[in-house]
Structures are given as structure tokens and as C-alpha cells.
Amino acid sequence: MEKKKRTLKISIYTQKGGVGKSTITTLLASVLHYRLGYNVIVMDCDFPQYSVSNMRERDKTALMKSEYHKKVAMKQFQSINKKAYPIIKCKAETALETAMENISLLSVEPDIIFFDLPGTANTKGVLSALKSMDYIFSPVTADRLVVESTLSFSKAFLQLPHSVEENEALALWLFWNQVDGREKTGLYNSYQEVIRDLNLLIMQTSIRDSKRFRKETDDTLYYIFRSTLLPAEIQLLKATQLDLFIAEFLRIVHL
Description:
The chain is α/β, with parallel strands linked by helices. It has helices spanning 21-35, 51-65, 67-80, 95-103, 126-131, 144-158, 185-197, 234-240, 242-252, and strands at 8-12, 40-44, 87-89, 112-116, 135-140, 171-176, 201-202.
């Protein structure tokens, strides 16, 4: 008897702003959906800015203005015969319910639902949504305030009292983001020791910093990186080590 596929609930989450939460969500979703054949949904719960939904609207406009990107999108659709992954706006307190409602309307059950949640942990519904995830991946940058804040939140979150809706198999993984190759490795080694002492999980692959993270499709004519309609180009994935990061991510979540 064939085992029924289970949809994974995953959040790229941090309570610190500016460390790449929504950007990494978009990059992951686009590569997994358009290039690797997985079926993805993104729940945009980051009220009121709704970063991912707004990016989708900008991507649509940019695509219509660029012959290059129109051709790339047409070729992609013809080769994979898949629509763009849904981006569904909701608030954190209704995220899980809204996600389940939308799954029931789809002809193909998704492999992954990404939840882009507000960074403020005391926003209504954020902690209960995080407790229901299968995996949380938290980006960390080599900034003392970011590290200390992320580590203290991660440790406190994992020690919260158990609740009825909690997923007991939840795993929280930290990863280094925006890594500058010029920074001293000793700095990272010191932080790694602290993370190990706290018994927190951290990915082996770090994501290198690049000006591409701050640019969208409409900023320049002939490249694709941060987009909700097209996957990042392979050479740019390699330059930032996102190709290695995604491979490790898939091993961790068993896909």
C-alpha cells in the first residue's frame, strides 16, 4: 500500500528584521517549485506589509515590460507545464486554517507550505503558528545583537510549555546568512561554539552575501535572482552557495 504524502509546514523565521526572512522564503519556493519539481504554496502572513505578495505584483509588472523575461517565463511554462505557486495573504492567527482550506481546493496536494510570519513574536497567532510547523529555519548574521537575540529567542521558544496544537516533531535549524567572505572565520567559530553549548541545530552550509539579494527582476535587464515567478539562475545560486544550501535543506526535511 502506497504511503500517503504529507505536506510539510515550514517557516523561515526570525524576530530580527533585515536578515533575509522573506527573501530566502521566495528564493527557496521558486527554485523548489519551478526547477526541482516540488509543489509549493506560500502563506504570506506578514501583515501589514505582505512583502511576498507585493513582490509577486512587482514581478508581474516587470515580466510584462521585459521581452527577455517574457521569453524565459514562456519557455519555463512549456517545459514544466506548471502555474506559478499560489501566494495567499492572511493574518498569523488564521494562517493554518487558511492554508488547509486552500489545499482542499487544489488538484495537486503541495509538498511544502511556506509560512512567512511577522517578525514580532508577540503578534497574535505567531507563536501558535510556529509551534505547528514541521521545521523552522532561522537566518542569523554575524552581528552580535542579531546572534544574541536569535539564540535567546530560539532557546526560549523550544522551552515553551507544550500545547494541544503543537507539533512535537518540530525541528528548529539556524543558518548563517549574508556571510561576507572577508570576515574572519574566528568570529563564526566563536559563535558556533556558543550554539553547540546551547544544544541548538545549525546548518553546515552558509549563504554568501550578494548585492543580488537586494535587487529584484526589474532592476536590471538580463538576470533572474529574487523572483516569485522565475527561479534564480544557476550561476547566481552557485555564487551565493544557495545551491548547496537547498541541497542540505532537502536532506534535512527528507524530500
